[in-house]
Design brief:
Shape: globular
Strand content: 5-15%
Oligomer: single chain
Strand order of the largest sheet: 3-2-1-4-5
Helix content: 40-55%
Structural class: alpha/beta
Length: about 450
């Protein structure tokens, strides 16, 4: 009985996938007075099998792609956000990302540093993101969850193993968990905000990941101001205090070769590819970086990005820069969909040997950049490229810089201190109860 059902399953598949065609075929056969056994009798036995294969392939081709959803504020985007979205994409075929509205962030966390437009540019620029939903709610309400399932065809809602609590203390993802459509990913290792303690006198050992950047910015800007005050007063700066202050805000990120491979495209340029090169610090990766990288990529087939060493950035911008260290900055750039490869620790000057080694066809630089002060006696870093006729200055699409982002935080110093303190209790509880979670 089972074998008979399987041998005739092509008929049912045909009826399901091609009802009009199959109905017409049977009607024609009936009018001619010809049965299916007659087809077999005249040696067309392979025809049903051909149809069966055809319908079977069509059925397989209709396999539903798994769509997953992950949301967030994505304010001060960093490698932790990027890695979370990378893990989320691995749980499905298509990743839809919800970017929480400014109003919802203010109500639940405090004022965002970046505008909705800037946060959308950052999220859309990530290589793992397929679709973006703007102005998503902070909490997954029943109404929004139904919209995700019905309108956006979402199969699962994703979040990290760290707590996401509403002001009333309830779980923001309780509904998704209740209906069995929730999946969890691992929070990125080494993302800690203990460096903020050196600036804000709150006796809590850990803060939210966004506070990590805020703390480093507050520290770097405050110390820069202090340094300028000392210089204006012609007073020597205490080198020991400078070292201690900077050490207090060191990143806790633990870079591994595996993480770099996970972020990498793992593909080189083709033999005739037009390789475009752009370099910079790419500190505190922002929408301006995304847009200039997109513009640079459009000029060739392969975009190679040089990321300055921490030492080079410090030499040109001050001892309290960069805010994010080399490996953090490298991952942020690698996560961008417009980037094909990076040079981790690129030299300040673009040399002839470097151009030859990487087969660089064009060297570009944006019109908007940090106000770097050239070191005494240092030549133009693009002198060789200019002499070879392969240098091009690109009009920067956005005026935003790392410094301008930092200045927004300084201008709202008290508000961001309150925002970080608000998260402190749940974060402390998370770290106290933290256990190993398998994942990438």
């Amino acid at each position: 009985m089972t074998m008979e059902y399987e041998s005739n399953s092509w008929i049912w598949d045909g009826l399901y996938y091609y009802p009009h065609f199959f109905g017409g075929l049977m009607l024609t056969a009936a009018l001619l007075g010809v049965s299916t056994s007659y087809f077999g009798g005249i040696g067309v036995f392979s025809l049903p099998h051909l149809w069966s294969d055809c319908f079977h392939k069509k059925k397989c081709g209709k396999k539903k792609r798994v769509r997953v959803y992950m949301d967030g504020c994505f304010d001060l985007m960093h490698y932790g956000h990027a890695n979370a979205l990378r893990q989320a994409k691995a749980l499905g075929d298509e990743l839809v990302v919800g970017v929480v509205s400014d109003e919802e962030i203010i109500a639940n966390k405090g004022p965002p540093v970046l505008s909705m437009e800037e946060r959308l540019a950052l999220v859309s620029g990530l290589k793992w993101v397929d679709e973006v939903i703007a102005n998503a709610p902070y909490a997954i309400t029943e109404q929004f969850m139904n919209r995700l399932f019905n309108e956006h065809k979402i199969d699962y809602i994703i979040h990290g193993d760290d707590p996401c609590l509403l002001p009333d203390g309830t779980d923001a993802y309780a509904l998704a968990k209740k209906v069995g459509r929730y999946k969890q990913i691992k929070r990125t290792e080494g993302v800690s905000s203990t460096d903020i303690v050196g600036y804000i006198d709150i006796s809590v050992s850990n803060y939210c990941t966004s506070a990590l950047n805020v703390g480093r910015i507050l520290s770097s800007m405050e110390d820069t101001k202090a340094c300028e005050d000392h210089n204006n007063a012609s007073l020597p700066r205490d080198p020991l205090r400078a070292i201690q202050s900077k050490d207090a805000h060191l990143s806790q990120f633990l870079p591994t070769s595996r993480r770099i491979v996970q972020f990498s495209n793992c593909k080189g340029p083709g033999p005739n590819a037009r390789v475009v090169y752009i370099d910079g610090a790419f500190d505190l990766f922002h929408a301006g970086h995304v847009e200039i990288l997109k513009k640079a990529r459009q000029l060739g087939d392969f975009l190679l990005v040089g990321i300055y060493t921490d030492q080079i950035v410090s030499e040109h911008r001050g001892s309290y820069h960069p805010i994010m260290h080399l490996h953090e900055r490298s991952l942020s750039v690698l996560a961008c969909r417009y980037v094909d490869e990076v040079i981790i620790g690129a030299p300040w000057e673009v040399t002839k040997d470097m151009i030859t080694t990487f087969n660089i066809c064009l060297v570009v630089h944006g019109t908007v950049s940090e106000t770097n002060t050239p070191l005494t006696g240092q030549s133009d870093p693009y002198e060789v490229a200019k002499s070879m006729g392969i240098f091009q200055l690109l009009e920067s699409p956005k005026s935003i810089t790392t410094t301008s982002v930092a200045q927004r935080i300084i201008a709202n110093h008290e508000a961001y201190m309150k925002r970080n303190a608000k998260k402190a209790v749940s974060e402390k509880k998370y770290y106290e109860q933290k256990m190993f979670v398998s994942g990438d």
